[in-house]
Amino acid sequence: MQMSCLLGQQELEGKRPPMIPSGRTLPSFRPYEYSLRSGGFVDGSFLSGIRPQEYFFHCMAGREDLIDTAVKTARIGYLQRCLMKHLEGLVVNYDLTVRDSDESVIQFQYCEDGLAIEKCTYLKEAYYQYVVANQSIILRQDEYSRIIDICGSTKEKPIIKTFKKIHINEARSIMVQTWRNLSDAKRQQYNHVVVKFYSPVTQNYLPASNLVAITERLDDLIRNYIPTHGKLDQTNMDK
Known about the structure:
239 residues; mainly alpha; 3 domains; 3-stranded antiparallel beta sheet; two-stranded antiparallel ribbon; 11 helices; 5 strands; 46% helix
């Protein structure tokens, strides 16, 4: 657009170029002239050419951009600045795909493995107290009753309770050792009853659109936290 059409309004700190004490933006304009051209609007292009005054306004805006870039780079660091410039066009869509500005897919799922969100630092037991302290900010009051209904209606099946009573490491060691002691003929007898491990919940249900789609590790942390610190009731929310 700047090559064939026009450069448009030139800005300094988000405003039109200011006037000097004589009432001019540049000495070539009349005092207190409020035309678009005297206010920094460039109606020329690089193809048709621009006037000296327009070129001066364009240099002023370009110089400010250079200073702003240099200050930001000095504050946040060169490498971080480079990463920010390369990643500023990436967008996480509602289907959790990461896409570029031209809608090309960068990642089919945000963080690719789907585990990085649940492995955030504040999703550890040591930081749960800060999450609870800020519950009024992260929890919408109108949806609190719906969440309570869903969590209250979810009951564990008897078989799940039985497996939880068994120490998982001890049970696994016994089963592995028993399987290794079997002969090949005995192992073939159990091929039809071998149960495959279920896929993680987050693999089939997106956490962004399903309320209870969390990892087993995060679910265990929540279940272990509640007996120690109590449930999140309405009284605690009012506090």
